[in-house]
Design goal:
The complex is a heterodimer of chains A (113) and B (842).
Chain A lengths: L6 E6 L7 E7 L3 E8 L4 E6 L1 E2 L4 E2 L5 E5 L2 E5 L6 E3 L15 E2 L1 E4 L2 E5 L2
Antiparallel strand pairs in A: 1-12, 2-3, 3-4, 4-10, 5-6, 7-8, 8-9, 11-12
Chain B lengths: L5 E6 L3 H12 L4 E6 L21 H4 L4 H7 L2 E3 L4 E5 L4 E4 L4 E3 L2 E4 L3 E3 L12 E3 L3 H11 L4 E5 L3 H12 L3 E5 L12 H13 L2 E4 L4 E6 L5 E5 L4 E4 L1 E4 L3 E3 L2 H5 L10 E3 L10 E3 L4 E3 L7 H15 L13 E5 L2 E7 L9 E7 L4 E7 L6 E7 L5 H9 L32 E3 L4 E2 H9 L5 H8 L9 H14 L16 H10 L5 H8 L8 H13 L14 H4 L3 E2 L5 E3 L10 H13 L3 E4 L5 E6 L4 H10 L12 E6 L13 H12 L8 E6 L13 E6 L2 E6 L11 E7 L1 H18 L6 H7 L3 H9 L7 H13 L4 H6 L2 H4 L17 E4 L2 E4 L2 H6 L6
Parallel strand pairs in B: 1-2, 1-7, 2-3, 7-19, 9-16, 10-11, 10-16, 11-12, 18-20, 32-33, 33-34
Antiparallel strand pairs in B: 4-5, 5-6, 8-17, 13-14, 14-15, 21-22, 22-25, 23-24, 24-25, 26-27, 28-29, 29-31, 30-31, 34-35, 35-36, 37-38
The chains are: A mainly beta (113), B alpha/beta (842).
The complex binds siroheme, flavin-adenine dinucleotide (FAD), iron/sulfur cluster and FE2/S2 (inorganic) cluster.
Chain lengths: 113, 842
């Protein structure tokens, strides 16, 4: 098994919840929300901070789709953030950071730059 | 270089200067645009400036970015104040000493706040309210201040007063005139506004002329008034009106008005053909427009002129609707009735604090103006009458009488195509019709392509009704599809789930929907599954369907913490339980408050604290109160016949019994009950979904009442019922509602929309005309029998408890959650305060 330096293991695959989110603490200061879509077996990771509601809550939002885009609705004021681009659908001037993810041997990893 | 490209130089990058850049870039005219801004940043949203104090940053307020201007190919220099115009060689000189040449020059220099010439007006903590820098200075000044005074009780002054009140200062407004907002309101409207604002804790001093600002005894300064009185304050904010920034025009011989302002014609041209003026610095027909919409129109006029178009400026409407400290105020046209022959209708409700005046012309034919304080629901309708010069209905007073507020805006009246729907972005009803004709029928797409309702937002409701009516007229079905993933309404989905015995969201989606669902259909389906099968709400397969409040079994607060509301059936609680609540709140440092539903709410619990707190509560005999769910909330009671000398039945006992019967029931929206022990109605039962009032012979049952946003009195459904019959009726009514109502439809709205109304409901429930009564009762009994306290089930399940962690990989807590102590309890720190608190080590 080879893991490049940039990939950081953040949790186990069984920490993920089908069609829902969890949150991990990265490097002791950054909160990252991780979502898992069961039907496509895809994992997504974005910053957990809701820049509109100004609280660390995005992992507690409902995930779903708008056309082809996969999104999470902030639990506070319900704006949608794309899990693919990080962009806020209702307010294009707002966005959250997006991280690349992968699963290796039951471990969930994030690409950290 | 391309000789066809004209050089356009814009001085000032305020809201209007920026709009000009956008409009000019959008025209396909070959030009080279250069923008010089005296401020350290590019244009920002001055209209929403006050939101800076709600935590919005300069970036949040920005209307554009350097990159965007780069993309448009627009040159810009910030911190570059223009000091000279050299008209002979068509160039300007700026503070940096640099020279810029132009073919066409646009003055968009806006205005500056007027500071009255009072001795002492230039001290350190005497400030104004116009730019982001001003607001930063106010924040700094407020830090060590206790008292703040705003001089000027106009629109901006009151907004400034709200801001310093939010910063925690004791707030005063000093106004020279005998009333507030003298430009927009008449005396009575001004008086009511004053009363309402004083109720909110701001002291208003009218007819006070400030003579001197001297050193204070208790505060930094003392204001001395001409009538010999004085007022001490730490901070003075001048908001005594604005003055056009016409300095350059004055110095370099462009014509200016007697009282200032750069004179422009209908093309927005100044006395020099190559120089234009737009926005708040411009004077058109001796009038300065202090609002953003007219400035935007001027910007579009100049862009049109320079690119070969013919748009002209014909004046603009100065009507305004706004919310000042939560008080709604509206002013339209000739609010003071100054037009000769003007007559008016006045409606005043001193009890609920509403004042409305309608000014009409001599012939009782047209609206001239209006004043609205305390309730602006009629604003849209009145404004449309006034802007479109529409003929008044038979009895004009109906436009401001209370019942007319119930009709949707403009519901009954037909607007002409020229009617302005969105004045911020200049969108008429005709424009909207055109876009719809071109195939755009979706509201949000429509907003995107017309920009309607993306400015101040004041036209949102009117836009929606207009679009709906237009679609209806075109024969387009206005669908009640729940969302883009299902082409069914909630009622239809309920039937499908029941008839096809569907047990999960995925199954329903695979058979009848598409995509991955969303925050609308998922909770709705979760709620239907719970109503039909009464499954444990946190079952793993249902979890992703729930809104955060249902997932975490608590209501999320603005800072991401949750509230805890244990059930206190009927509002009855033992001293021992009260002590437990107190002890738990103390142990976890929670904010404690009595709710409007006769129970106790504990606020400020982090997600990881919820399980241990609930464990302690459950051990002491408490259950969840379902404050988070679309479910039964509370059954309020009055003390009733046990203690009260007038009571005729035991209302407390009855309330407790009903609350225990229906607790946990999932429904389209929340359900509230109340039981009063006699006709004096101390439990306010007639404002509840189910209201019960004791009689000598039993109970009178009221249904479908509502408090909240649009109160509705409950309807008397049946009289003198015995307890058993009453419970059977309630079983049937609630289950019928659960089955047939729309998502998030309270019983009040459901009944209003039920074909046949109350009478039909009585036939279904009492006479059983649908032969459904037994089934409804059975279904309710299943729900009652399968009740479980969701919190109890949760803390007993290690799998569920895993949800209640901020981080799956760390025990740390969320360092963004910070509290401030106020009145001896915690409250969330505001964004501004958070910046001042050093972030705790993780
Ligand atoms: C806590 C409480 C205010 C208080 O401190 O007194 C409250 C708090 C909230 N109310 Fe309420 N309402 C509270 C009593 C009321 C009452 C009074 C009553 O129940 O007698 C009403 C009017 C009666 C009625 O509902 O008809 C009331 C009408 C509303 C409405 C408007 C509903 C409507 O049909 O117009 C909403 C908004 C909604 O539900 O969509 C609302 C929504 C809310 C929400 C859920 C807003 C939110 O999403 O955060 C608040 C949750 C706070 C929390 O975390 O607990 N609250 N709310 C009261 C809790 C009562 C309880 O013990 O459960
Ligand atoms: C707190 C507040 C709330 C408001 N609320 C509303 C509202 O609800 N609705 C509404 O319609 N309007 C509202 N307004 C008014 C609205 O903001 C103005 O009408 C609008 O900003 C005018 O735009 P403008 O571009 O003409 O002027 P400004 O926005 O003032 O911009 C002028 C710019 O030109 C710059 N400038 C001046 N001289 C020079 C020079 N010599 N060289 C270079 N640059 C120069 C200035 O620094 C400034 O940046 C509000 C205003 C304030 C302050
Ligand atoms: S009225 Fe209800 S919803 Fe509104 S702030 Fe108060 S508690 Fe919250
Ligand atoms: S009127 Fe301001 S957004 Fe439409």
């Amino acid at each position: 098994m080879t893991i490049s330096n940039q990939w950081q293991t953040i949790c186990q695959q069984n920490d993920l919840i089908n069609d829902s989110g969890i949150c991990v603490l990265l490097n002791d200061n950054q909160q990252v929300a991780i979502f898992y879509l069961k039907s496509t077996e895809q994992t997504y990771a974005i910053s957990n901070y809701d820049p509109i509601g100004q609280a660390n809550v995005l992992y507690r939002g409902i995930i779903g789709s708008i056309d082809e885009d996969i999104v999470v609705a902030s639990p506070l004021y319900k704006q949608h953030f794309s899990l693919i681009s990080g962009e806020c659908i209702q307010d294009k001037t707002m966005s959250v950071d997006v991280f690349e993810t992968r699963i290796v041997d039951d471990l969930v990893q994030l690409k950290v730059t | 270089m391309d000789t066809n490209r004209i050089k356009i130089l814009v001085i000032g990058n305020g809201m209007v200067g920026h709009q000009f850049v956008e409009s000019m870039s959008a025209s396909n005219k070959a030009c080279e645009i250069t923008v010089l801004s005296a401020e350290p940043r590019l244009a920002y949203d001055r209209v929403h400036l006050s939101e800076f104090f709600d935590g919005k940053s300069a970036d949040d307020l920005a209307l554009t970015t350097g990159e965007h201007y780069d993309e448009l190919g627009v040159n810009f220099v910030t911190n570059e104040k223009v000091t000279n115009i050299n008209r002979s060689d068509k160039s300007v000189t700026a503070s940096s000493g640099k020279k810029y040449s132009y073919d066409k020059l646009i003055l968009a220099t806006g205005s500056y706040p007027f500071v009255p010439p009072i001795p002492g007006n230039n001290q350190e903590h005497c400030l104004v309210y116009r730019t982001i820098e001003d607001l930063k200075a106010i924040s700094a000044s407020a830090k060590l201040a206790k008292v703040g005074v705003v001089i000027g009780g106009g629109l901006l002054g009151l907004e400034a007063a709200n801001a310093i009140k939010q910063l925690g200062l004791e707030t005063h407004v000093v106004e020279f005139a005998p009333q507030l907002m003298a430009v927009q309101l008449d005396q009575s409207g001004g008086n009511l506004l004053k009363r309402k604002i004083e109720e909110l804790g701001v002291t208003v001093h009218i007819q006070k002329a400030t003579q001197d600002i001297v050193k204070g005894d208790k505060c930094r300064y003392k204001l001395q008034f001409s009538d010999g009185t004085h007022l001490e304050t730490d901070l003075v904010l001048f908001s005594a009106g604005i003055r056009p920034q016409d300095e350059l025009a004055k110095k370099f011989d462009l014509e200016i008005g007697e009282r200032g302002g750069i004179v422009i014609n209908d093309l927005c041209q100044t006395s020099d053909d190559n120089i234009f003026a737009i926005g708040e610095c411009a004077l058109w027909q001796n009038f300065i427009f202090g609002l953003v919409a007219p400035g935007y129109t001027m910007a579009r006029v100049v862009a049109s002129q320079l690119s070969g178009g013919t748009l002209q400026f014909n004046g603009a409407d100065m009507s305004t609707k706004l919310k000042l400290m939560g008080v709604e105020v509206g002013s339209i046209g000739d609010a003071h009735g100054k037009t000769s022959g003007a007559k008016s209708y006045i409606f005043e409700n001193q009890i609920s604090g509403v004042y409305k005046k309608l000014v009409i012309d001599e012939d009782k034919n047209k609206i001239l103006g209006a004043v609205l304080v305390g309730d602006t629901r009629d604003y849209d309708t009145l404004l449309q009458f006034s802007l479109n010069d529409m003929d008044l209905p038979e009895s004009p007073e109906s436009l401001i009488l209370p019942q007319s507020a119930d009709t949707t805006p403009m519901g009954a009246f037909e607007l002409p195509d020229s009617a302005m729907i969105c004045s911020c972005h200049n969108v008429t009803k005709g424009d909207i019709k055109q876009v719809i004709k071109n195939g755009t029928t979706n509201l949000s797409e429509l907003k995107q392509c017309t920009k309607a309702s993306t400015g101040c937002g004041g036209c949102t409701a009117l836009l929606k009704t207009t679009v709906d009516k237009e679609l209806l007229a075109l024969g387009v079905e206005v669908k009640d599809d729940i969302c883009e993933h299902f082409t069914y309404s909630r009622k239809q989905l309920f039937h499908i789930v029941k008839v096809e015995q569907i047990k999960s969201f995925d199954e329903l989606r695979d058979k009848h929907g598409k995509g991955h669902g969303c925050e609308i259909c998922k909770p709705a389906v979760g709620n239907i599954l719970a109503s039909v099968w009464n499954d444990y709400i946190l079952k793993q397969t249902h979890l992703p369907l729930q809104d955060t409040n249902d997932t975490y079994l608590g209501n999320m607060q603005k800072d991401g913490t949750y509230s805890i509301v244990p059930r206190i059936a009927g509002g009855e609680i033992t001293p021992n339980k009260l002590i437990v609540l107190g002890e738990v709140a103390k142990k976890y440092n929670l904010y404690t408050k009595l709710t409007g539903g006769q129970r106790i709410d504990l606020f400020g619990a982090r997600v990881d604290q919820l399980p241990p707190i609930w464990e302690e509560l459950i051990n002491a005999g408490f259950e969840t109160g379902h404050a988070y769910g679309k479910s039964l909330r509370t059954v309020k009671s009055c003390v009733g016949s046990t203690w009260c000398r007038y009571g005729v039945q035991d209302s407390v006992g009855q309330a407790i019994e009903l609350e225990n019967r229906y607790k946990g029931l999932r429904s389209p929206h929340k359900i509230k009950f109340a039981v009063s022990g006699c006709t004096r109605e101390c439990a306010e039962a007639q404002s509840k979904d189910i209201g019960i009032i004791a009689t000598e012979n039993g109970w009178n049952l009221y249904v479908c009442g509502n408090g909240g946003m649009k109160p509705r009195h409950g309807d008397l459904f049946a009289t003198d019922l015995d307890t058993k019959t009453m419970v059977r009726y309630i079983d049937r009514i609630l289950m019928f509602y659960v089955r047939t109502a729309d998502r998030l439809q309270r019983t009040s709205v459901w009944l209003e929309e039920l074909d046949g109304g109350l009478e039909y409901l009585q036939q279904v429930i009492i006479e059983d005309c649908l032969d459904l009564a037994q089934e409804l009762e059975n279904q309710m009994q299943t729900v009652v029998d399968s009740y479980q306290c969701e919190w109890k089930t949760t803390i007993e399940s290690p799998e569920s408890l895993k949800r209640f962690r901020q981080f799956v990989n760390s025990e740390s807590i969320d360092s963004n959650i910070q509290f401030i102590t106020e009145r001896e309890q915690i409250r969330p720190a505001t964004p501004v305060e958070k910046k001042l608190i050093p972030i705790k080590e993780l």
